[in-house]
Amino acid sequence: MTSFFLKGEWYDFRDLGNPVGGLLHDIDKIAPHWVVYVVASLIGTGGIVLWGVLSCLAFIWIERRVVALMQNRKGPNRVGPAGLLQPVADALKLLMKEAITPRAADKIVFWAGPVLIFVPALAVFAVIPFGPKMTLADLNVGVLFLIAIAGINTPAVFLAGWSSNNKYALLGAMRTIAMLISYEIIQVLALLGPVLLVGSMRLGDLVGWQDHYNTWIFFIQPVGLMAYIFAGAVETNRSPTDIAEAESEIVAGYHTEYGGIKFGFFYQAEYLAGFAIAAAITTLYMGGYTLWGAEKYIPSWIIFLGKLYTVFFIYIWARGTLPRLRIDQLMAFAWKFLLPIMLVNTLVVGGEVLIWRENDISDVTALTLIGLVNFFFGAALVIGWARFLGHGRGRQVGRRALLTQEVGAVYFGAETSS
Amino acid sequence: MDSTGVIIAFYVLAAMTIGSAVSVVVVRNMIHAVMGLIGTFAGLAGLYVTLSADFIAITQILIYIGAISILFLFAIVLTPQASRNNQESFLRFPALVLALLVAGVLIFVALDNTWNLSHAPDFPETASTIGELLLKTYVLPFEIASVLLLVAVVGSIVLVRPEPVEED
Amino acid sequence: MTIKSEPFVVNVGPQHPSTHGVFRLRLTLDGEKIVDADMVMGYLHRSMEKLAEERTYTQNIPFTDRTDYLSAMTGNLAYVMAVEKLMNVEVPERALWLRTIMAELQRIASHAMAVGIFANDCGAWQTPVMHMFRDREKILDLFEMACGARLTLNYMRIGGVSKDIPVEWMPQAQRLLKELPDRFAEYEDLLLSNEIIIARSRGIGTLTPEQATAYSVSGPMLRASGVAWDVRKADPYGAYDKVDFDIAVGRNGDVYDRFVVRLAEMRQSLRILQQAFERMPAGPVHARLGTATVQPWGQAVAPLAYRPPVGEAYARIESPRGELGYYIVSDGGPAPFRFHIRSPSFINLTPLKLMSVGMTVADAIVILGSVDIVVGEVDR
Amino acid sequence: MATRTKFLSGLDIAHRIEQRFPGAVDEALPEFAMIKPERLIETLTYLRDDEELGFKFLSSLTAVDRLEWFEVAYHLESFRLNQATAVKVRTFDRENPKVPSAVTVWQGAHLQEREAYDLMGIYFEGHPDLRRLFLWEGFAGFPLRKDYLNLPGGLNAGLERFPGEQGLDFSGRGTQ
Lengths: 418, 168, 380, 176
Description:
The complex is a heterotetramer of chains A (about 425), B (about 170), C (about 375) and D (about 180). Helix content of chain A is about 65%, strand content about 0%.
């Protein structure tokens, strides 16, 4: 007790689990057993909430600046240095706005919507390992937890859309549910690949496996990663699948009627859901908090957050680049394209793991072979299936207009080489 | 029922489950009733966690909150006649009587039984245990259930398919 | 067995991000499918046709800016052409060339806006619009140099243009002309082969040439349906008979083709500009009519009121949105007796129901975007 | 290369119509041919379908209040032959002007006839959906008519002089 504040682990920021562990250890000596539990969960939840809010604020600014750069604009640059305080100003504005509830809305459900949508967005982070000891609850069904908690979104979105008593909101809610339910299946199948490889659904085990073999599942499961990134875009309503809140069609979708801080909840929940998807991709596909030995020198949580933000950046990039698909095209993409491919992919991974386990093959050879096979087979599968569905090369080529001098002639249906 | 925390959690969750379940029956607005149902499902999932059946708990959330409740919501919204409110029904009193009878039987059984505590060891990895059981011991029922679901999927697709336009 | 759902009426607008102004589209939906589409307009109706009957012919020119405010030059041009036809005025050669140049610059600016906003309607979050604005801004700078205004230009005059271009105008325009082909290549690269844009716009809102003609559709919409009709070519005005250019024609008449035709027309406009810059003669820019005086610096001071002879005139030009016609009836007084605008945005909306029924909500927005309406011109 | 749209004079058109439908033409001027309302639809159909005319495109349809009568002007174009013309129809009934609808001939007349009905109050018989277009249902009167209202400042429609012109009396700021 003499050196309460001067113990080594207090400065060991490679893993924030160390100082917290030290603190808990000291508390355990002086307080009853359950206090440790309460303190540990309070620190964990508080940390995650704090991190989530700060990251959201930072990314509001980053997203606006980055997209502005993509669009030949400057972006927010007035509030604070380089516009850095813009998100704070936004948040203050949202907080101070009058919380309007439409008269025709169903009051209770209208209020429940933003709260319900916020819970799963935050709860997902409970199972994410930010570092070796930085997991709030390392469930043994962590992967399933990711999907199940994200699934709570569905009723929340529906209730928000329905209770607004607005046609755009209802249309948006219907679209969201159709999308979420379809892409939940894709998500499950995409996450099944890593789970089959590792043989565990505990996220800590998944990271440990990638650390042990010094590889990322990204290299072994490219098709699964692509499908999961796309399904993640659907899940978080980001471009090119922001159909549920398609601004140019249904104004703001299910949260059309929400304003003030209630809208702020949706806004932040959307960011948090985006971070959750990025965290899942980082953990499952990109080695989590490990970086081929560099985690000895760099704090692991910095590695993790770096990867997470990189993945999240892809979504921002897509938002500044891509147009939006139509709902039926998106559904067709899920059911006709991704589902068969993911089923085949799962089968292939299962077979590969079986062969690897049953036979005496060295790990390096096995993983290299699996990676190569999956890459080429996946590429062949995607291209072949796209061809089979009629998305040949010829259809993608843009047409050019026909140029003519002849006034009054009709060229309808004239097919010339473009 | 080992520690105080679990006991507290059990009572909180049980109260939540029963309260939501009562609200499902009592509330007039059908969407509110579905919200109550979601609360019941969530409470049940929590109860499963206290029984260290985490796989079942997660599945409960995934299937019941994520899918079944949506089914209810869609059914309510897409039914044109059923507006938002529950209707009065002549079956109200028979239903009440039936419910009271069932409740009586359940309470009687609960009080009359001598409850034995199980001393079987916990499953450390519920998911893999369930997986092995499903794919080894109970593979036939599992497959039969799968085939049944497949039939249901195909049937529903056939039902909602637009009729092909007949060309003469 | 089919499952029927209740019809669901959605009001798209008048306050909506995609109606390009205060325009209302009342869609009756079955699920996401449109079973009926009805247009409600008039939120921007300023009764220009009535107001114009109370103002002199010269005073009416600013009104024509404010109909199609994204393409004010062509509005000016069509109106002054109608009045010139009525008064039988011979316009000086340089003024004709200047009118052509300005109209073509305006066409590029307007088409850039149309294409960008169309991509926005497809859901590309602002990026194409902002890229297009880059070029449009430079064209607006040129307009500002020439006439002091950027949007409502009021440049054309009866018998010519308000003033000659300043000396530094031509070098700047030449510089812009050198930049633009690369930019257009970039847009064609980014947008024409974009898989999602193709998926969203091919086969949507198709009009056959017969339908397009019967529904009085004009401009890029008509040409996208495969009808090679361009007033610039068919009935050349300005200096269009002296320049060489092609009519861009689509093959399928869908939303994608309208978009392709617009991009191709921007290139043709560049061609016209190139030739015009080389061949524009020197000379006066305003005809001497009545008491009109031309100041030493080239500005024409119009007489207070023209009194055209009794009669009527209908002049039409190819505005970026289609065939823009002005029908003017004169009773010999200082103000038009009847002033009617045949506005392409308005008439191109006629087949909207035909195009959107059977499509989804998302398609309806894209179709409306492809019509490229300017509500100021729809409602007038 | 400088092709120009051939404008078929009203006299020419009137001659052709007269040959096909004797008595259908009311008046003919070089600028237009005036057709009798009762023969309008068959005449317009003839103009559209005839091989040598082929006016498949209705460029503009508008109504004019000539104080004694209302007239509806149709500006027609043919893409194939690159020619244009104008025909008109008139009605002397100021209380209840009625003209047959051209929607059956050109669907493009749909919105334009609605506009003419809205602003000029001409009832197009046979129009499938004749409602107010820009103004709301229940709007009193038809604003483009010359007798709708005198404008502020007391300047009557069709006035001979304008402010600033010589000879205008500014003492009373208008006549009312």
